[in-house]
Amino acid sequence: MTQSPTERTRVKRLAKRAHYDEATIHAILDAQPFCTVGYIFNGTPFVTPTMQWREGNHIYWHGSSASRALEASEGAEVCVNVTLYDGMVMARSAFNHSVNYRSVMAFGRAFKITDDVEKEQKMKNFVDLLYPGRWDMLRPMTKQEFKATMILGLELSEVSVKVRAAGPGDDEEDFALPIWAGVIPMHVQMEAATDCPRLPAGLVPPAHVKAFKFG
What whole-number distance in Å separates Cα of residue 48 and Cα of residue 29? Predict the structure, then answer.
């Protein structure tokens, strides 16, 4: 499904890189849990990094119930950004150097998950999306931990994607210059897990640790 862009989601600069289809939006959100949330607090703009996860046509993020970021975002207009960096683009002029990337911008009014059953399910979904099966291995959350955690959500109704996936965009007369140009690919690389120094003897990483990767 493709969305019709609104005034604030319509990509104006290099509009040819814009995408508004659900499949592209979801693929980027699912591939990168790290995001930034923009909001206004006491008249001052802030951007806070956090982790997001998607369920259907909504994204969610969590934090401390005492968090200034979540307090200011609840019921307010926010902007959530998720970006994947895919490569450094080196051109024949400084002006034409660039970056290959995939970036989602989502706008809307954040809402708080208030139902305790739904809130616990959202927590489980978040953990198990990152580490399948881990929630049921963990000790139960205490009442204080549950109370101290807030979850906000955002419907993906105003979203746009901007993608650059190409080589150098040099001026035509520059292509013949004896200057190296091209793309240096960038990837997220998972390394072998390291044990907590206080891990009881004999414990080994479970399957979801060994197989951990972003989507």
Answer: 17
Residue that is written with structure tokens 């009881």 in the block: 200
Q: Is the pTM of this model over 0.85?
A: yes
H runs (alpha helix) in the chain: 22-31, 68-73, 116-130, 143-147, 207-210
Token pair 């960038």 in the structure block, residue? 186
Query: Among residues 48, 40, 49, 38, which one has the least CA distance to residue 106?
Result: 38
Determine how many CB atoms are found less than 10 A away from the CB of residue 69.
Answer: 22
Cβ atoms within 10 Å of 137's Cβ, excluding its own? 10
Q: Given this structure, which CATH class describes domain 15-166+192-210?
A: mainly beta
Query: From first to last of its 215 residues, what are the pLDDT tens digits of the chain?
Result: 556 666 555 554 545 656 668 899 999 999 999 999 999 999 999 999 999 999 999 999 999 988 888 888 989 999 999 999 999 999 999 999 999 999 999 999 999 999 999 999 999 999 999 999 999 999 999 999 999 999 999 999 999 899 999 999 999 999 999 999 999 999 988 888 899 999 999 898 888 887 777 65
* CA pair distance 195, 56, nearest whole angstrom: 35
